Known about the structure:
Blueprint: E1 16-25, E2 30-39, E3 44-48, H1 55-61, E4 70-79, E5 91-92, H2 98-104, E6 109-112, H3 116-119, H4 126-136, H5 143-156, H6 163-166, H7 175-187, E7 193-197, H8 205-221, E8 225-230, H9 233-239, E9 242-247, E10 250-256, H10 257-262, H11 267-274, H12 318-322, E11 335-344, E12 347-357, E13 362-366, H13 373-381, E14 388-393, E15 396-397, H14 407-412, E16 413-416, H15 430-441, H16 446-459, H17 476-488, E17 494-498, H18 506-523, E18 526-530, H19 537-540, E19 543-548, E20 551-557, H20 558-563, H21 568-575
Parallel strand pairs: 3-8, 3-9, 6-7, 7-8, 13-18, 13-19, 16-17, 17-18
Antiparallel strand pairs: 1-2, 1-4, 4-5, 9-10, 11-12, 11-14, 14-15, 19-20
Helix pairs in contact: 4-5, 5-7, 7-8, 15-16, 15-17, 16-17
Amino acid sequence: MPTTTTVPKATVATAISVRDLNVGVHGGESILKDVTFDLTPGRILALVGESGSGKTTAALACMNHLRSGLELRGGSVQLHKGASRFFDQNMDLLTLSEKQVRRLRGGTIAYVPQDPALSLNGALRVGEQIHEVLRIHEFGRNSKQREARVAEVLEEVGLPSTKKYQRRYPHQLSGGQQQRIGIAMAFACRPAVIILDEPTTGLDVATQDLVLKTVYELTTKHDVAGLYITHDLAVVAQVANDVAVMLRGEIVERGPAKQVLYRPEHEYTQTLLAAVPDLKGARDMGGGPAVSPRAAMRAPWDHGHDDAARPGEARTDRDRAASSVAQTSDNEPLLAVRDLRLAYGPAVILDGINLDLLEGQTTMLLGESGSGKTTLSRSIAGLNGAYTGEVRLAGQVLANGTRKRSNEDRRRIQYIFQSPFSSLNPRRSIGDSLEVPLEMSGGMSRKQRRAAVADALDAVRLGRSYINRRPGELSGGERQRAAVARALVNAPSVLVCDEITSALDVSVQASVIELLRELQRDRGLAMLFVTHNIALARHVSHKLAVLEKGHLVDYGPTDHVLRNPRHDYTKSLLEHVPTL
């Protein structure tokens, strides 16, 4: 074990004071309005709010960084004397030169971005990347001391400090390990302030729990002032000492975490808390999982299937929509996966998966990163054809890849991708993007396609006025609704939703889930909902399937699996769910 570096505790009550910060678009609207808060050594302030509320803009201002197109209109960010070993006087960070700011960043004020894959250099070994940070900021007297610090900080974030591990490249690490490398780089120089921008978004619950504990322990142990940007209030309850709630560029409520989370005074804070998913089902996040009117007439977990027709779709080609009703027998699911196996050489990714999707019901697919969730989802949709076994739709075995499937088969299974920002072509209008699936299916005129697109936009509560807008003009939640509309435009029978709420704040997440439930009730859709967010289970799913390293270890009605998990892996996942 490396020798621990002795670090003096901060000698100030406040590390950074932000006062009356005003930022706006050049010649346009205000983004931040009189934002004021303090960052205190040994404590973490959570900056909470929806996408677009100004959280990241306020945090980056603490590093004297404004994104392109923004201008400073007033206020100060004061770094107090004694907060950092590099400076012996108070200074307003917003008045510093670029050279002075570069000296501060990484050494005195560190930043951990949201996506670890984008923050690491794929061409450099992880040990070299941490060593580079120490060298640039002149930490330690020589290379030997810096090497000792690399090993020390790796152990601090719960990673192996061996030379063999340090020689790994980022792509050889899991998402959680990459994020802990990012945290190690941020803490390497013993900063006075650390800014964490949604560092657990996209991580499974077990990895998220470990990252949060790492952040909390390092911040308190080394007297670092922390600023944690998030939209996840359950995470706030785990890691934050204090909370400031932002709405449209203003702080509308602030105080100790226990006060803000459990005795909120502002209506907006109360709305955010009401939208937090609850694993126990004690809070009603807009209702439970959708059950179609026909599905509700039979026992909830009966595998039977009604022969009555689904309500017609509000679109031009009504006959084709009606034909999408599954012609299945009384005991056959709409979509069935049988003995599905996929391996790349000796590496087995999926091993003998058996899964059913019923009309009008949702199956949630849970598991950590690398468990095989997305591989299984893409295999069902035909986007990955390397599997053995069967995927049956309405009793008929589907070809392994989309190229071998018929237009009708492709139409009836639609895939919604994780990122609302990368799933739409930024150069196309929303209307043009939604027309692509209809063009590929054929059989409709331009006028019919346009009418179908307008109906789909109405169905996801965007409205046909969005038809000529481009993705860049939409918020994250609006883009995800547009992605849902594109999947619906062809009147599918099955929707595969791959982590579609992971990048959304809680209120937008709640609205998207409510939308999916409504669409499922109206259209009798069968849905596979892929996620690592177990807290959504009671709000989304009728059945729960848990994957561990390619094996289905728990499978059954949602309530049954949550109350009586059979497998130790499922029990472990449930233990790590962050709650309020």
